[in-house]
Amino acid sequence: MSRRRSRLEIILIILAAIRKGVDKPTRIMYAANMSWRPSQRMLSRMMEQGLVEVRISPRSRRRYVITEKGINMIDYFEKANEILSNDVYLTGQYSFSYSRLP
C-alpha cells in the first residue's frame, strides 16, 4: 500500500507540471494523479497563495501559468532536496559508531 502524499508534495507536483508546459486544468489533474474536485480546490488555493494564475484563452479556456513566487518555491525545494541527498551523513560515506562514545 502506498503512502498518502502531503499537501506540499502535491503542490510541488502541480507546479512542476505547469512549469513544464501542462497548462489545462484536466491535464494538470492527470499529471498530479488526482480527481477533479481535489485538483480544482488545490489550484484555487495555489491561486490565492500567488503560486499560479489563470489566463483566459481566446476561446474562453482556462490556462494556468506559474508565477515568479511558484518558480521560487520549486527552486527552493529542489535545492533543499539536492543538499539533503548529497549530505555525507545521509549517503553513508561516513559511518558513526555509538560504541566509540564514552
Question: Please, could you describe this protein's structure?
Answer:
By secondary structure, the protein is mainly α. The protein has a single domain, classed as Winged helix-like DNA-binding domain superfamily/Winged helix DNA-binding domain (Arc Repressor Mutant, subunit A), CATH 1.10.10.10. It has 5 helices and 2 strands, in the order αααββαα. The protein has helices at 7-19, 25-31, 36-48, 68-86, 88-91; strands at 52-56, 62-66. Strands 1-2 form a two-stranded antiparallel sheet. The longest helix has 19 residues, at 68-86.
Any chance you could write out the topology, listing elements then pairs?
Blueprint lengths: L6 H13 L5 H7 L4 H13 L3 E5 L5 E5 L1 H19 L1 H4 L11
Antiparallel strand pairs: 1-2
Helix pairs in contact: 1-4
What brief labels describe this structure?
mainly alpha, two-stranded antiparallel sheet, 5 helices, 55% helix
What is the 3D form? Answer: globular
Are there runs of 5+ residues with pLDDT below 50, and where?
90-102
Helix content: 40-55%
Number of strands: 2
Order of helices and strands: HHHEEHH
